Structures are given as C-alpha cells and as structure tokens.
Amino acid sequence: MDTSYPREDYLPMPPHKRELSPTVLTVGASPPPRDHLIWSIFNTIYMNFCCLGFVALAFSVKARDRKVAGDVEAARRFSSKARCYNTLATAGSVVLPLLVAALLITGVIHLSKLAQESVGFFTYQFSGSDDEDK
C-alpha cells in the first residue's frame, strides 16, 4: 500500500505564531491623477450646459492620454481642468432648471393674486340708493 499521500488521521498541530512583516511606506509617490472620464461623458450626453460637458470630455481624454504616456504633471493639469468644467456643467445644469422652476412658481403665485384682485374690482355692484345725488 502506498503511504506517500496524506492520511486522514492528522496529528494536532501547534498554533503558529504570527511573524511580523515589515511595513513599507513609499514617501513621495502619489496616486495617479483621476481623469473624470465617466463624469465628462455623463455631462456631455445628459447635461450639456453651454457645451461645458464636451470641453470637459476633451480635457478628460487629454488627461488619460498623458497618464498613459507617463507625464503625470500634465495629466494632473488636464484632470484639474476637466474636474472644473465638469463641476461647472453639473452646477449649471442643476441650478438653471431650479432657478427657472422657482421663477415660474413665483410668477404663477403673483398672477393668481393679481387675478383675485381684478375679480374683486370687476364684481363691484353699484347700489340703488346713492347719497351723492341728493
């Protein structure tokens, strides 16, 4: 019978001590810059306010190209510009409809008050006994 394979009758093993591994910190190495490509595509397709989403997409592609080429500093600059244009496009696309809705609601409220006042003016009834004629 071949006894080279492990058998079912294991002996209890003593608990292993954890060996401490040294922690390595790399100082000065920063993570690669983000290119914000998904955000730029979203702004280009769905929230294209004054073509800022398209401009952000162009800077995002440039940032990704520079990152792939290994020029981290240029990738950081393009990434920063892409983030700025994406922020402006998103803020403009969110704030403008809210502003238009607020103006529309305010106008409707003002017109309804004006209409109520004009209805009161045109429903004035003159009485039969005028004291001014005597």
From TrEMBL:
Q: Name one GO biological process term.
A: bone morphogenesis
Tell me the InterPro entries matching this sequence: CD225/Dispanin_fam (IPR007593), IFITM_antiviral_protein (IPR051517)
Residues that span the membrane, as ranges? 37-59, 85-109
Source domain of life = Eukaryota
Assigned keywords, A-Z: Membrane, Transmembrane, Transmembrane helix
Location in or out of the cell:
Membrane
Q: Which GO terms describe its cellular component?
A: plasma membrane
| Key word Membrane present | yes
Please name the Pfam families in this protein's record. Answer: CD225 (PF04505)
In which family does this protein belong, per the annotation? Answer: Belongs to the CD225/Dispanin family.
Protein name from the UniProt record: IFM5 protein
What species does this protein belong to? Oceanites oceanicus
